[in-house]
Every structure is written in structure tokens, then in C-alpha cells.
Amino acid sequence: MTFSPFRIDVSDEVLDDLRARLARTRFTDRSGDQPWQAGADPDYLRHLVSYWVDGFDWRAREAELNALPHYQAKIGGRRMHFLRVPGARPAGAPAPLPLILSHGWPSSFVEMLPLVDRLTDPAKYGNDPADAFDVVVPSLPGFLYSELPKGPLTRASMAQTLHLLMTDVLGYQRYGAFGGDVGGVVTGWLGALYPEQVAGVHMIHPPFPASFDSHPMSPAEQAYLDAEAAYDESDGGYGAIMGTRPDTIAAALNDSPAGLAAWLVDKYRDWSDNHGDLESRFDRDTLLTIITLYWTSGAIGSSFRQYFDFHHNSPRPNITVPAAFTVSTEPSHANFPREIAERACTDIRHWSEPGRGGHFMPLEEPDLLAAELTQFFTSLRPY
Q1: Any idea where the Epoxide hydrolase N-terminal domain is (predicted)?
Q2: What is the SS3 assignment for 298?
Q3: Which of 106, 232, 247, 258 is surrounded by the most beta carbons within 10 Å?
Q4: Residue 284 CB neighbours (<10 A)
Q5: If we measure between CA atoms, which residue out of 298, 296, 307 comes closest to residue 19?
């Protein structure tokens, strides 16, 4: 398979239409007594939309993104977008291990960019240049510039696509994989399906086993599952609608940029380690870069497909390759017991609970996460 360069190129007409829609936004009133109590806070949304219209410089961000090496390939007849950044290895050093970094929802390849420089050129950050990696960052199928497959979008099918990208398209014989959220589940599937080629897997969201039937659950496991179910009572509405009526909500979000922003920033605030202050973790330019990518690609609806097709997923085999975890601090993963992951993984080499960094940890704590990735994957030498 071959691949070719790709550029992000948003027309002036699309940007003019976006600004016109934003200028006509009809804002709602707050439902609860407190900001963010009932979802995206209307006052914050007004603030963000105003900046989107008058302060945000998409062309500058577009140029920054296009300074990176973007590519596209056809896999299974469908377009796949990815970045590929070679490691800056010293002369005479062994070839760097390739790493594929997979984002989740509601995210994009932008989430992984702070890791790219730290992993490909560690000397720039005062670290050992021999620890450089080759880095590949895909847009998962259905996200931004990567097309949906012809059949159901399952975790296994996404893993198969990423494996073909790494092996058939890019020619790597062996590689490591990292991910969070959906990208983390896909990372687990890579380790389960391709143990001969996958050197190890690293995730911020530890996996569940295909079944809890092998032995009785511990009190810690039961307490976690009960707490997760309770949290879903207040947070699970987004998933319920995207899993049952995705076309209904996609019609609204694909027509209203302010609505799209509300849908996304609600989760960036709820799931990150920001202590109630969204912009303490993500500046407005970063948030609006991600939102503008979703808007201009028209991909919000296709990003829901992995929810709608969830029932097509089959049980995942055990993950037998070396595994590492830097556990997210987001509410749904508070007090996640290692024994649940041990039911799914037979070779956990590293388990870290740093107490900071949430669902979007590559953006939130890039130095911490780059160090953990480097520590784990260099420990697997020779690859």
C-alpha cells in the first residue's frame, strides 16, 4: 500500500459561513443555579463564541498544523489520515521503536501533538537522545479526515485498520501502541490480536476483561463497578443519545457551530483534571482548533458511529503483550482497582496512579506522560 502527503485546507467560503452562523447564535439561559450544573454553561459559551468570531486565528493554527507531516492512505478502500514523525536518533544508534498514539472521543490527533515532539526529539527536553521514537498519530476511522469503514465500526476493525497502517502501509515489523478512551480500547485490541508485531501497549484507561466469571469479584472491584454505575446516572446521557439516536443529535451539531462547541467543551470540562476551571487545562485556541476541525470536516456525526455500532463488538481476547498503565484521574476512573486490569492483561509491567491528568492526558500532562511512555517502552529493549 502507498501513502501520499495531505494538507488541511479550509476554504474562505467555509470560514465566512462559520463566522456568519456564530454571529447569529441564539443562546439559551442557564437551567441550574450554578455554572455548568446542567451542561455547557451559557455564559462560558457566549465567551467562547465571541472569541471564536473575533479573536481566534484559524489560519495561524492551520499553518501550524500543516507544518507537521500529514499523510493519507487507502486502507480497505477507505481514506485514512495520519501524521508520521521520525525520531531524531543519534548517528549509530539503533533504529527507534515506532509508536502509534491513538486518541479517543471527543478528541482528535491534536490531543497527541504535545507528545510527538517529546517522544521524537527527547534531547530538546534534556533527555537521552537515544530514547527517541518514530511516532505515528492517526485520525481514527470516522474522525476528521479518516473515513468510516464499509461495515460496522468495531474496536477490532479499528485495530485491524491501524495494524495495516503500521505494517502494510508504513512497513514496520514491530511497534508499540498507546491510547486513551476509544483509542485505548483499540490499543488493547492491537495487543490482543497482533502479539507478534506489537511490542507492548500503554493506556490511561485500564481495560475490562471480556468476562468477570473467572473468579469472584473482590470488594474493591465491586465498589468500583458500583461507583461507575452511579456516575453514569449523571454523566451517561451523551452516550445514550449517541448510541441510540446519533443522526438526531448530529443534525443539530452539524448545523450549529455553537451547539457543536457546547457538546464538546462540556466533556473537556467534565473529564479533565481542571478542578472546575476548563481553561486552566486548555487554552481557548486549543479548544477552538479541535472544534473547528470537527466543524470544517463535518465529522461529528461519523465520530458517533463507534457508539451506535457498539453492539457489533465481540469479546476481546486477553492482552498477552507487556502492558503499562498511567491511570487517568477523571471521575469515572477514580479508585480503579488494578485487579480488574489483571483479569484482562496477563503481563502488566507498569502501573502508575500519578494523581493528576484526566481523560485528555496527552494535552494535560505531556511531560509526565512522555516520561512514562519512554520508561515503559525503553524497558522492552531489545524490541
Answers
A1: 4-112
A2: coil
A3: 106
A4: 16
A5: 296
Question: What is residue 28's three-state secondary structure?
Answer: coil
- Residue 170, CB half-sphere, CA atoms under 13 Å: how many? 27
Strands 134-138 and 98-102: parallel
In this prediction the pTM is: 0.96
Distances (CA, A) of 133 to 317, 374, 377: 28, 9, 9
**CA max distance for the chain:** 63
Contact status, residue 179 vs residue 103, Cβ threshold 8 Å = yes
Q: In this structure, are residues 139 and 108 in contact, taking their beta carbons and an 8 Å threshold?
A: yes
Tens-binned pLDDT, residue by residue, of the chain (383 aa):
789 999 999 999 999 999 999 999 999 999 988 999 999 999 999 999 999 999 999 999 999 999 999 999 999 999 999 999 999 988 888 889 999 999 999 999 999 999 999 999 999 999 999 999 999 999 999 999 999 999 999 999 999 999 999 999 999 999 999 999 999 999 999 999 999 999 999 999 999 998 898 888 999 999 999 999 898 888 889 999 999 999 999 999 999 999 999 999 999 999 999 999 999 999 999 999 999 999 999 999 999 999 999 999 999 999 999 999 999 999 988 889 999 999 999 999 999 999 999 999 999 999 999 999 999 999 999 88
